[in-house]
Amino acid sequence: MRRRIDSLIGQVVAANAVLVVLTLLSATLVAGLRLEGRQLAVLMMAVALTLVVNVWMLQRRFAPLDRLIREVEQVDPARPAEARLARPDERIAEIDRLARAFERLLESIERERRRSGQLVLRAQEEERKRLARDLHDETNQALTGILLRLEALAHDLPAQLRPRVVELKQLVSGAMDELVTLARQLRPAALDDHGLVAALEAQLARLRSRSGVAAELLVSGEPERLSPDQQSALYRIAQEALTNAQRHARATRIEVELACSGDCARLTVTDDGVGFDPTSDADGGLGLRGMAERARLAGGELDLRSAPGSGTAVSATIPLLVTHDGNGQLTAAALTGDTER
């Protein structure tokens, strides 16, 4: 059975109406009055007027609460921290407290979401690093052993069978090259050893050698101020944007700009490809949601500008004012959003 939901204002009006009627009837009985036609009409008009005034006052008092409820219902769950509830000109203490409490709740939810998201991304990067190390140290070494055995086998086989061994050696060498490429994509050694700028340079060099695209990196400011977590986030965003430019946009020129100045770092990937309509709801395999989520979890935002036939520009902006420990890792305060700014 579905429960009936009554509005608060309706319940208050009904309670006030009952009280008014009971009060008037009690006063009439105590005074011993006999209400006749005209007197009864006046009494009913007084009751009706009282209820009308009561409804008007209640609606006026409850209007800010109704507006607050509507604004709460329009909050974007993906961006709770951006919600700012409007305050009425005529402030009501209880409603103002309720709005502030809801904003604090949204901020704490956003902090926890960012903290948990950062921990998930860090765990993903650690797993990528482990897989890359296993591919390089174990699988690649096993293939190297197979290659050496094929080399030894080629000397013992008849001459007519050696071309087949050469073909097998080529297949193994190709598999080794694929494994090296996969390991670099999972976790580039340059990112851990030399930082974001070196990793981007290596990524662009591979892009130029594979596809012949004219790719350029521009760096300004102090990229060393970025924490390892922020560098990983920006690198993954750049990696996805470069893949899109090559695979989907069919670009012939790509420019990557990293600017770290003031209190923010901005990474921009621009291409001269075919472009697309960014207002379309379909992600189309471009990984746009993933890039936006990475930027958001790093405390920043992603800006996408594109149009059919006009190329694409992807820009990620993240704050630099975060607390680090001695190893350059985000501290608990930074992860939970408690850093003083």
Characteristics:
about 350 residues; alpha+beta; Heat Shock Protein 90; 2 domains; five-stranded mixed sheet; 5 strands; about 60% helix; membrane; His_kinase_dom
Describe the structure.
The chain has 341 residues and is α+β, with helices and mostly antiparallel strands. The protein has two domains: 8-111, no CATH class; 193-341, Heat Shock Protein 90 (2-Layer Sandwich), CATH 3.30.565. The protein has nine helices and five strands; from the N terminus they run ααααααβαββαββα. It has helices spanning 8-31, 37-73, 93-156, 162-186, 189-193, 196-211, 228-247, 288-297, 332-336; strands spanning 214-221, 253-261, 264-271, 301-306, 312-319. It has a five-stranded mixed sheet with strand order 1-2-3-5-4. A hairpin with a 5-residue loop joins β4 (301-306) and β5. α6 packs parallel to α7 and α7 packs antiparallel against α8 (288-297). Mean pLDDT is 78; it is low at 1-5 and 322-341. Keywords: 4Fe-4S, ATP-binding, Coiled coil, Cytoplasm, Iron, Iron-sulfur, Kinase, Membrane, Metal-binding, Nucleotide-binding, Phosphoprotein, Transferase, Transmembrane, Transmembrane helix, Two-component regulatory system. Its EC number is 2.7.13.3. One of its GO terms (molecular function) is phosphorelay sensor kinase activity. This is Oxygen sensor histidine kinase NreB. InterPro entries: HAMP_dom (IPR003660), HATPase_C_sf (IPR036890), HATPase_dom (IPR003594), His_kinase_dom (IPR005467), Sensor_HK_TwoCompSys (IPR050482), Sig_transdc_His_kin-like_C (IPR004358), Sig_transdc_His_kin_sub3_dim/P (IPR011712).
